[in-house]
Design goal:
Elements lengths: L6 E7 L16 E2 L2 E2 H10 L6 E6 L16 E5 L4 H11 L7 E6 L7 H10 L5 E7 L4 E5 L2 E6 L5 E3 L3 E4 H11 L6 H7 L4 E5 L11 H13 L7 E13 L3 E4 L2 E4 L3 E2 L7 H14 L4 H4 L13 H13 L2 E11 L9 H12 L6 E6 L5 H4 L3 E12 L1
Parallel strand pairs: 1-4, 1-6, 4-5, 7-12, 17-18
Antiparallel strand pairs: 2-3, 6-11, 7-10, 7-11, 8-9, 13-16, 13-19, 14-15, 17-19
Helix pairs in contact: 2-4, 4-5, 7-9
Length: about 400
């Protein structure tokens, strides 16, 4: 695909994975400090050529992903009884975006390398479908009753992997016409007459199936991080400030003209307060009140960037960098849209990261609650910290 093409990814995570042994489905089990699903999602969300990720979950698991569906580049949808039905649900969720191409991936392949994703995308410039695979190198037998019955030629045989990529319109039509179960999306594509190119796979993209596969995946993670497990943390923050007398509100470091101000011990920047608490939360180091007690008069009227800079320095002292941040401001007024770019720029400056790693957005509460009555402003923030 060319550089202007839009590529989306569907992560199929509705299965139960019973061969992995008793306990939770394998996508919700821990791998090197994170769930298998989190590793898989991050592999696609962090890829520069993926514009949108759709996570397809079993209906009973929908409550396990409240944070992911808050991200503008993600959607979480319920799947069906079969893999084909789940993929169809993911494809339907992409209709509005109508990407040029879509990659369909098994959640149980959490360590898919970025260059393998690139190979699949690149192959779609010349074919309606492309999928990674590894040539079979071992001898193949047929057998019955515990005994070898014959030998099968291995020439031309491949072990299929994911992501399997397709031009979106073609695979959408193929799924609509298929209607039955299938081992994977290549089978559905070929049934619709689509050519599927084979690209080089990668042993690291193996599928976690049995209990022993978790240890194998842990070893790969350890090796890729120089013998240590990479520490990636997320944190959330929430803050509220009431309106008081004044002629401007300070939000995410920007003074916004208004007929009131926000009341608080400091400058009451509700956006930066929520973001600061998100960083402290990811570090498990309390909140703003822990580090800057409101009972201490020295902090009265302090600009909130002081608090945020302290939280960033605490993260840095423990070996973490800011991956990305997302702040949602909740109010009826003032209008945030005209000031959002300035807020992103100022927040990025304080965090010392690129502006494209900062999201500032706003919503109303539909005239409900204290924000709906225009009594104040609330903010929700999330942050990702990455240990280098």
């Amino acid at each position: 695909m060319d550089k202007d093409s839009t590529v989306a990814a569907i992560i199929v995570a509705a299965g139960r994975g019973r061969r992995a042994g008793p306990g939770r489905p394998k996508q919700w089990r821990e791998l090197a400090g994170r769930t298998v699903a989190a590793w898989t999602i991050d592999a696609f969300r962090s890829h520069p050529r993926i514009a949108q990720v759709v996570l397809v979950l079993a209906p009973d698991d929908m409550g396990l992903a409240p944070g992911w569906d808050a991200h503008p580049d993600m959607r979480v949808v319920a799947g069906g009884d079969t893999r084909a039905q789940s993929v169809a649900a993911g494809l339907a969720a992409l209709d509005a975006l109508a990407p040029d191409a879509v990659l369909i991936h098994d959640v149980a392949r959490p360590l898919v390398p970025a260059d393998m994703i690139d190979r699949v995308i690149d192959a779609l410039a010349h074919a309606p479908g492309a999928a990674p695979a590894l040539a079979v190198v071992d001898a193949l037998w047929t057998g019955a009753d515990g005994r070898v019955q014959g030998v099968h030629p291995r020439d031309g045989l491949f072990r299929a992997q994911t992501p399997q990529g397709f031009r979106f319109a073609a695979i959408r039509a193929a799924h609509r016409s298929h209607g039955g179960a299938a081992a994977d999306d290549v089978e559905i594509a070929r049934a619709a007459g689509l050519d599927v190119s084979i690209v080089e796979g990668d042993e690291r993209a193996f599928k976690i199936t049995g209990p022993g596969d978790f240890a194998r995946a842990e070893a790969i993670v350890a090796q890729s991080s120089g013998g240590r497990m990479r520490d990636i943390r997320t944190g959330t923050g929430y803050d509220v400030h009431a309106f008081g007398p004044g002629d401007a509100v300070t939000l995410c470091g920007v003074a916004v003209p208004f007929d009131r101000a926000l009341s608080g011990h400091s400058d009451a920047d509700v956006g930066l307060h929520a973001l600061t608490d998100a960083i402290y939360g990811a570090l498990a180091e309390g909140d703003i009140g822990t580090h800057f007690p409101p009972s201490d008069p020295q902090w009265k009227g302090t600009a909130s960037h002081v608090f945020l800079e302290h939280a960033v320095s605490r993260a840095g002292s423990r070996g973490f960098r800011i991956g990305n941040v997302d702040v949602t401001l909740i109010c009826e007024r003032p209008r945030i849209g005209p000031h959002a770019d300035a807020m992103r720029a100022r927040t990025a400056e304080i965090l010392d990261i690129a502006a494209d790693r900062v999201s500032i957005k706003a919503t109303t509460s539909e005239r409900l609650g204290f924000t709906g009555r225009e009594e104040g402003i609330a903010a929700i923030a999330s942050v990702t910290l990455i240990a280098d």
